[in-house]
Amino acid sequence: MEPDKKLLERWQAAEILLFGGSAGSFKILFRIVKELSETFGKTVILVIHRKKNFYSEIEKLFAENSRMLMREIEDKDILKKNTMYIAPANYHTLIEYGGYFSLDVSEPVWYSKPSIDVTFESAAEVYGGKCVAILLSGANQDGANGLLKIRESGGLTIAQNPEDAEMPEMPRSAINNGGAEYVLTQEEIFQLLLS
């Protein structure tokens, strides 16, 4: 199924693209990292649940296979176009007015640090309708409230189809709370990303 015209227009107008993923999202995220071009035209942020000691392997694998400039977020980094950022383990990543990141050491949210909700909610405040967020496979509800905030602020929100996700709970939570404006399969997500 081709993306509809309204979806494409909003996609093309966006400046920032956020992905949230947990259990079962690695394969799709790895494919995203490999396929997005160095002239993609948006800032890309990956917020992935993972254990601290597992972090370097993901970061290394992604960096070796990314066509886009890729970096782990550091406190006060400026958000740049055509750059893919990965939220560091053991911190919450926030986006601040003025277009820079800040890292926070407060308690985990949904047992997770980084929390997808924390990043998505800050993106909603700063970017509003210039934001696209895609919530992928995961085994808890992190990201559902953040996705709803982005939708309420005029941003484009997408959840992976739960029937297509290895762990359906995370995208299903976003569908159930009204946070997901669109529900797309992996292939439909890629059609949009590469359009």
Automatic annotation (TrEMBL):
Residue ranges of every copy of the CheB-type methylesterase domain listed in the record: 10-195
Enzyme Commission code(s) on record: 3.1.1.61
Pfam families: CheB_methylest (PF01339)
Superkingdom, natural source: Bacteria
InterPro entries in UniProt: CheB_C, Sig_transdc_resp-reg_Me-estase
Cited PANTHER family: PROTEIN-GLUTAMATE METHYLESTERASE/PROTEIN-GLUTAMINE GLUTAMINASE (PTHR42872), PROTEIN-GLUTAMATE METHYLESTERASE_PROTEIN-GLUTAMINE GLUTAMINASE 1 (PTHR42872:SF3)
Keyword annotations of the record: Chemotaxis, Hydrolase
Catalytic residues as annotated in Swiss-Prot or TrEMBL: 22, 49, 142
Single GO MF annotation: protein-glutamate methylesterase activity
Protein name (record): protein-glutamate methylesterase
GO terms (BP aspect): chemotaxis
GO cellular component assignments: cytoplasm
Family matches, as SUPFAM superfamilies: Methylesterase CheB, C-terminal domain
Reactions listed under catalytic activity: [protein]-L-glutamate 5-O-methyl ester + H2O = L-glutamyl-[protein] + methanol + H(+)
